[in-house]
Amino acid sequence: MQGLTRKIVGDRWDSTFVARLRRYVEFSASDIEDLRDLLEGEQSVRKRRDVVVEGGSHAKLSFVKDGFAARYKVLRNGKRQIVNIIVPGDVVGLPGSFLDAASFSVVALTDMKLEVCALDDYVALCYRRPKFGLALSWLAVHEATTYAEHIVDIGRRTALERVAHFLLEIHARLAAVGRAAATAFDLPVSQEVMSDALGLSVPHINRMLAELRESGMIALAGRHVSFADLRRIQQLAHFEPARLTRIPTPSRPAAALVTKRAHAVDRHVGRA
Amino acid sequence: MQGLTRKIVGDRWDSTFVARLRRYVEFSASDIEDLRDLLEGEQSVRKRRDVVVEGGSHAKLSFVKDGFAARYKVLRNGKRQIVNIIVPGDVVGLPGSFLDAASFSVVALTDMKLEVCALDDYVALCYRRPKFGLALSWLAVHEATTYAEHIVDIGRRTALERVAHFLLEIHARLAAVGRAAATAFDLPVSQEVMSDALGLSVPHINRMLAELRESGMIALAGRHVSFADLRRIQQLAHFEPARLTRIPTPSRPAAALVTKRAHAVDRHVGRA
DNA sequence: CTGAATTATTGATGCAGATTAACAAAAAAG
DNA sequence: CTTTTTTGTTAATCTGCATCAATAATTCAG
After folding, report:
1. Among A25, A109, A29, A23, which Cα is nearest to A69's?
2. In degrees rounded to 5, what are phi and psi of residue B168?
3. Are A71 and A84 in contact (CB under 8 A)?
4. Are A166 and A197 in contact (CB under 8 A)?
5. Residue B138 DSSP code
6. Residue of B98, B119, B160 to mutate for A, most A C-beta atoms under 10 A
7. How far apart are the first and last CA of chain A?
8. B72 CB near a chain A CB, below 8 Å?
9. Alpha-carbon distance A144 to B83, whole Å?
10. What is the per-residue pLDDT across A172-199, written as a single tens digit (0 to 9) for each?
11. Burial state string for A241-264 with b = 16 or more CB within 10 A and e = fewer than 16
12. What is the sign, positive or negative, of the torsion defined by CA atoms of B207, B209, B210, B211?
């Protein structure tokens, strides 16, 4: 059952997603082999179509090889909130697989290429190679952190700061998987999408972009964004890149379990 | 190394947190034993103090036995955004353990009791019992989903809806761990905290609470909240409880890995 | 190449919610 | 019980951004 899969999958499938997983843990060649065997082949999704992630036992995990998507929710009043922009190297299907009702949907913002595997199979792999379970945890935590930053964005930043922060965040995420230059990138996203991601109206997004342009912080050529002065815009946006640690390797197999006394934490109050 | 730990920990430590983990996977008595052995003892944190989660290899996971906390970030302009309210049964230390710099902090909103274990030890346990790695993934995904809902809240709901949704969400989370009645609960949280969680000003929170009271949706007695008409307020808030699925058990040890053809997804567009 | 559909841009108007400032009511501290 | 600190409540004013509306510029489909 190996040869077949590998042939369909091709030889350099591992680029984006394995690179992503390797940010969290070290994987051996045989680990990667095992993962590769789970893949059911490449899927394409057209721009504007939903990326389907059936619930229950048919649930799938999809690794984004190429293209952009957005996870969103539509309220009864018709407003849409985009919760996350999905970029190459991301995994689609995590929340979807875990919740009965798909309370969130995912649309392709561009044509996409996905590598799909069944959640059940991935879980089985985790039992054989626990490393993958941990990698999944890290991935999920990383995603949660992205969401957390998004909350700060929407909750307490001004419109201008939000837009700036949004651009910087996407840039950083693309750069992390080698899809962006040092100070520029392509953002295949309309202003309407940005407005739904940032909780602003389209006209206002437009004005803020204009302001960033006029103040010389960014340059726009179609949907190519470049940062004129990275420092300055980072400062404006209160942006700080997330530096994540890797999963501790089990060097000491079942580490010394020293029992410690319970003690009160003694630190200062948490307000500024 | 067992007996000692167990004595300190006490006999019914498992109530809240194990109940929480059991929402995701089935655990045997011996699984629980192993987890228990990791615990370093109970910690107390006083109201208004930071819950410390050292980074790097000293990272700790803390299981909240009792009390409330808030994960937050303070911007340079002095504004604070609370990203998540932490309730009994939650785990503190996930993002903190994974990121180098503690970009978020956690304050105790009330006096708290925590059960602490070293992240390294938990990781080691995951290698021995992969189930725990998966449980951690589910926990993290669940948390991410909570965050996602919070983004929708702040991004696209009116102030009134936000406050209503906030109350309903906390209520649901408390009810899930047996800390709330069917239509009432205690919310040990000041209006300032609510304002920082919901991205609103304190006076406005106050008005919205008053409005909910006047319209007969809630009753407030000090910090005891009760819902007069659950349906109505749920409707107002666009609230739908999250129903999560459990981790598929590896019934078929290394499930049949059938290779499937790559095929394009064919569904309709994702807008309303 | 041409009309249709998105997407971007700009302006005028209104309102939701911020801000500021008191003051009342509770807790907490002493 | 008194003082201090924290929390809640209310009101007056101001503003950032939504909303609505119209037009230009693109992109897409045939």
Report:
1. A109
2. -65, -40
3. yes
4. yes
5. H
6. B98
7. 58
8. yes
9. 10
10. 999 988 899 999 999 999 999 999 999 9
11. ebebbebbebeeeebebebeeeee
12. positive
